[in-house]
From TrEMBL, chain A:
Pfam families noted in UniProt: ACT_AHAS_ss (PF22629), ALS_ss_C (PF10369)
Catalysed reaction equations from the record: 2 pyruvate + H(+) = (2S)-2-acetolactate + CO2
Similarity remark: Belongs to the acetolactate synthase small subunit family.
Keyword annotations: Amino-acid biosynthesis, Branched-chain amino acid biosynthesis, Transferase
A GO molecular-function descriptor: acetolactate synthase activity
Record Gene3D superfamilies: 3.30.70.260, ACT-like. Chain A, domain 2
Protein name per the record: Acetolactate synthase small subunit
Chain ranges of the ACT domain: 12-87
Organism ancestry: Bacteria, Pseudomonadati, Pseudomonadota, Alphaproteobacteria, Hyphomicrobiales
EC number: 2.2.1.6
Known partners and oligomeric status: Dimer of large and small chains.
From TrEMBL, chain B:
Organism: Xanthobacter agilis
Catalyzed reactions per annotation: 2 pyruvate + H(+) = (2S)-2-acetolactate + CO2
Superkingdom assignment: Bacteria
Cofactor note: Binds 1 Mg(2+) ion per subunit. Binds 1 thiamine pyrophosphate per subunit.
Its EC number(s): 2.2.1.6
Phylogenetic lineage: Bacteria, Pseudomonadati, Pseudomonadota, Alphaproteobacteria, Hyphomicrobiales
Annotated protein name in UniProt: Acetolactate synthase
Length: 171, 601
């Protein structure tokens, strides 16, 4: 459209859906079929009696593509609501990771010291390894994992981002 | 105890709470939804439903010869009547054969409910005979789909399927029913008891948007209405309101392929179709307009041409029931989400209430410009008295049918574009074509569906000799159900549009586009029990067309036409509206299309 290429933005979307078979496939199929990006996607039931699940999607694209994603999601039949948290402002975003580090001696104590600084908890330990549990924004987890690399990082499991708006109102 | 298995499906007899089998529920739900005709093909996994069909007379089943044709027939039925088209197919290949039709209905927003049988629940996932993941396969080519695992959910799902198919932007819905669920007994619920949990399309626009829209139109010096299939989907009232509002304002009207008939072609404000093969005046008016009102259309690539040169100086209003159609390809200044008829109604009222009027002098100048473009006579072609020109064939056909109760379907290709250019539609729902997906083989089954919906009407499938062979077998359906459809083949012995593109873009290397080993269409018609007519002389054409129309039987008309003719005007891929090629221009076609354009379809 315009002469200047449109900027790429990162947005976090909250989607409330009926927890019915195939609903996740619908959402994922929409993203793959139309060539949208998924940086992170999490889903879990949030209300058993009303069969509602909440999907949190982190995606990147031009503002026009982000608007398309929101509208395409909203038009899926089992979708109740779509909220672009990034557009609406004030919201909280967290991710949980388990980080396995193997090492002995100085590296091992350094890993423990760093874990303390990052408020990561030890949830499993052997004489030559730790599993840390860390919660925070994604970049904090990125940084923690990066710091663990020279100290014997074995593997990382991450939940992906969950997000919720601040204040008293619901999605 | 009352018997629980004798609930017969006659319209309106069963009430909520009646016990019946899943198969009976399907028939009962059809009856409750007012379904009179369904198009289908039996198989192992739908036998219980076919058994339930056998026990009733309220619903007529039209047996097709291929499941793809069942969906196209239901599309023709739906689009010509405004009702939901209903399809019944079996599991596995029955469902996969239906996929092309479902994708077609999704692209063109046609309301379809397709019931598919599925293998018994305990066999799902076991690679059972004729098993496929129907909901998985059809998810991206339906508006919505369901796999019903409990017979007590079935009635609700069926009524929801009809609701979803026809509300909001219409589309196809699949309900996949395992065979054990068809046999199982459960409780029926009527349609009045069903309210969809989440799906509530927005129909009314906000007053502020309506006010802004009418003010913007009134301020225009070079306005245009760009209308589409959404006007037709919204119902006859939308066409009526469009006509009234256009006459009130005096704004020129053009339309997409899918919207033809919403505005009458005989009206002086009609510019003809726009887009790749649209008229010179429609495309140049789009390019030069200052206010564009897009009504139920979606800025498809066949319409816009090169996006960064699309109507560069215009403000755009976009009315669409589907928010995801807005700002998808083209950024608009005023989006209005709502139903076309309701929005046009509100705009008409707001126009009158505010006492608005167009700038008469500006509009007169705009029309003078449009008349200069019109005088270019962009659809003119070189007539011949030795060989039938395809344009001439359609002109004569149109002349012969125009005063009749006529429905016209097409296949896909050159003949489709010539039909769109040379048939002049006065009413909506009379023109049935595969616009979005571009499905060769659409026309004959769609004609069958339209004929079933309008038994007394004349239904003509304008076809090509290549396309028609894709669903030729449906001649047998037409014969069996006494549906006297007319197949009018423009036979140029090539896949004409492929040949045209190869000529323009690939140095005239006609790779596999010649129609070799064609059947004798006259004998083929006779083999099916229909009537075959061949014509290859312009002088004989009128009489032959008259014969085709007068016979009360399916006809295949083999109209032998000029093999070399190309379809113009044409906006080459990747070009702007004001860079269109006309038939009588001596242009170097290779230079007219950029390398970038060649990458586009």
């Amino acid at each position: 459209m315009s002469e200047a290429p449109e900027r790429i933005e990162r947005h976090t979307l909250s989607v409330l859906v009926d927890n019915e078979p195939g609903v996740l496939a619908r959402v994922i199929g929409l993203f793959s079929g139309r060539g949208y990006n998924i940086d992170s996607l999490t889903v879990s039931e949030v209300s058993a009696e009303s069969h509602l699940s909440r999907i949190t999607i982190v995606t990147t694209g031009t503002p026009m593509v982000i608007e398309q994603i929101r509208n395409q999601l909203a038009r899926l039949v089992p979708v109740h609501r779509v909220q672009d948290l990034t557009v609406e402002g004030y919201y909280l975003e967290r991710e949980l990771a388990m980080v396995k580090v193997r090492g002995t001696g100085e590296a091992r104590s350094e890993a423990l010291r760093l874990a303390e600084a990052f408020r990561a908890r030890v949830i499993d330990a052997t004489r030559e390894s730790f599993v840390f549990e860390i919660t925070g924004k994604s970049d904090k987890i990125d940084q923690f994992a990066h710091l663990m690399e020279p100290l014997g990082l074995v593997e990382v499991a991450r939940t992906g981002v969950v997000a919720i708006s601040r204040g008293p109102t619901a999605l | 105890m009352t018997s629980v298995t004798t609930a017969t499906a006659t319209a309106g007899t069963a009430t909520t709470g009646t016990k019946m089998t899943g198969a009976e529920m399907v028939i009962q739900a059809f009856a409750d939804q007012g379904v009179a005709h369904i198009f289908g093909y039996p198989g192992g996994a739908v036998l219980p439903i076919y058994d339930a069909l056998f026990h009733q007379n309220a619903i007529e089943h039209i047996l097709v010869r291929h499941e793809q044709a069942a969906v196209h027939a239901a599309e023709g039925y739906a689009r010509s009547s405004g009702k939901v088209g209903v399809v019944l197919v079996t599991s596995g290949p029955g469902a996969t054969n239906a996929v092309t039709g479902l994708a077609d209905a999704l692209m063109d927003s046609i309301p379809i409910v397709c019931i598919s049988g599925q293998v018994a629940s305990h066999l799902i996932g076991n690679d059972a005979f004729q098993e496929c993941d129907t909901v998985g396969i059809t998810r991206p080519c339906t508006k919505h789909n369901y796999l019903v695992r409990d017979v007590n959910d079935l009635a609700r799902v069926l009524h929801e399927a009809f609701y979803v198919a026809q509300n909001g932007r219409p589309g196809p819905v699949v309900v996949d029913i395992p065979k054990d669920v068809q046999f199982a007994t459960g409780t029926y619920v009527g349609r009045a008891n069903i309210q969809h949990k989440t799906y509530r399309p927005k129909l009314e626009a906000e007053d502020g948007q309506i006010a802004a829209a009418v003010e913007m139109i009134a301020s225009a010096k070079k306005p245009i209405f760009y209308t589409g299939g959404g006007v037709i989907n919204s119902g006859p009232e939308a066409s009526r309101l469009l006509r009234a509002f256009a006459r009130e304002t005096g704004v020129p009207v053009t339309s997409t392929l899918m919207g033809l008939g919403a505005f009458p072609a005989s009206d002086p404000q009609w510019l003809g179709m726009l887009g790749m093969h649209g008229t010179y005046e429609a495309n140049l008016a789009m390019h030069d307009c200052d206010v564009m009102v897009c009504i139920g259309a979606r800025f498809d690539d066949r319409i816009t041409g090169r996006l960064d040169a699309f109507a560069p100086g215009s403000k755009k209003i976009h009315i669409d029931i589907d928010p995801s159609s807005i700002n998808k390809n083209v950024k608009v200044d005023l989006p209005i989400v709502g139903d076309v008829a309701r929005v046009l109604g509100a705009m008409t009222r707001a126009w009158a209430a505010r006492g608005l009027a167009m700038d008469k002098a500006a509009l007169t100048a705009w029309w003078a410009q449009i008349d200069r473009w019109r005088s270019r006579q962009c659809l003119a072609y070189r007539a011949s008295d030795t060989i039938i020109k395809p344009q001439y064939a359609i002109e004569r056909l149109y002349h012969a049918v125009k005063d009749k109760d006529v429905y016209i379907t097409t296949e896909v290709g050159q003949h489709q574009m010539w039909a769109a250019q040379f048939c002049r539609f006065e009413e909506p729902n009379r023109w049935l074509t595969s616009g979005g997906l571009g499905t060769m083989g659409y026309g004959l089954p769609a004609a069958i569906g339209a004929q079933k919906a309008h038994p007394g009407a004349l239904v003509v499938d304008i076809a090509g000799e290549a396309s028609i062979q894709m669903n030729m077998q449906e001649m047998s359906t037409a014969m069996q159900f006494d549906l006297p459809v007319k197949v009018f083949i423009l036979n140029n012995k090539y896949m004409g549009m492929v040949r045209q593109w190869q000529e323009l873009l690939h140095g005239g290397r006609y790779s596999h586009s010649y129609s070799e080993a064609l059947p004798d269409f006259v004998k083929l018609a006779e083999a099916y029990g229909g009537v075959g007519i061949r014509c290859d002389k312009p002088a004989d054409l009128d009489a032959a067309i008259h014969e085709m129309i007068s016979v009360r039987k399916p006809v295949i008309f083999d109209c032998v036409v000029d093999q070399q003719e190309n379809c113009f005007p044409m906006i080459p891929s990747g070009r702007a509206h004001n860079e269109m090629i006309l038939g009588d221009m001596a242009v170097d076609l290779d230079a007219a299309i950029t390398d970038e354009g060649k990458m586009l379809v």
